[in-house]
Design goal:
single chain, alpha+beta, globular, about 35% helix, about 100 residues, 3-stranded mixed β-sheet
Length: about 100
């Protein structure tokens, strides 16, 4: 099975066991080479519209990142995931600046 397909399956929101909060809208990913030259993954987790990122605790973010890492490992993906978090509003703002 191709790495792309396995990664897509591992990050499928329908089967990913994320905590109930914060709500995730989508996860985008791409192949990435970290500063040491190691093959890695760069993930952008987009939280649902209306999420007040200031009200999201470190514990909630930690549980979300753990669920993502566990799913990747369960699907045989050994590349380290660099996980970045944004909201739908922030993403729309960034896209409108392009």
């Amino acid at each position: 099975m191709a790495v792309d397909k396995k990664t897509n399956e591992a990050l499928d929101l329908k089967s990913l066991k994320l905590p109930s909060s914060p709500l995730v809208y989508q996860i985008d990913w791409e192949e990435y080479e970290d500063s040491t030259g190691e093959p890695s993954l760069r993930l952008q987790v987009v939280l649902k519209k209306g999420t007040d990122i200031g009200q999201v605790s470190g514990e909630q973010i930690g549980k979300m990142k753990s669920a993502i890492r566990e799913s990747l490992i369960a699907h045989g993906i050994s590349k380290f995931p660099y996980i970045f978090i944004t909201t739908q509003e922030e993403l729309a703002e960034l896209n409108s600046e392009d």
